[in-house]
Amino acid sequence: MAGEHTIVFANDTGEFWTDERCYITELHNCAASPETSLALARVEAGVTTQLHSLAGVIERYIVRQGEGTLEVNGIKQKLVAGDQAVIPAGAPQRIENTGSVDLEFYCLCTPRFFPEAYVNLEQ
Fold this sequence. Notes:
Jelly Rolls, six-stranded antiparallel β-sheet, mainly beta, three-stranded antiparallel β-sheet, 48% strand, 123 residues, globular
């Protein structure tokens, strides 16, 4: 006997601006799949996102376009299209778009991202 399955229908939220100083498109984040979420982040040229951490959530960046400098726990690393980074839960993080085009990257979170996990470290 096969297991249960769930269909998640497209939503109409589209891309939205965040206080983190980037645009987000939620691709997959629902109660039916609490173990993971997937979003597309877009950071404009010359912008550095807000220093923050995610409490209890491991985040993976998968760079789709552009280039930037990722800072995690005070350590900086250059990233370009195709690069990936695993950011431990609770680690201070931010990314700077160092290129001339929008920096786009997938954000894969486990467990799924929820707003209460976001900790602004610039306050």
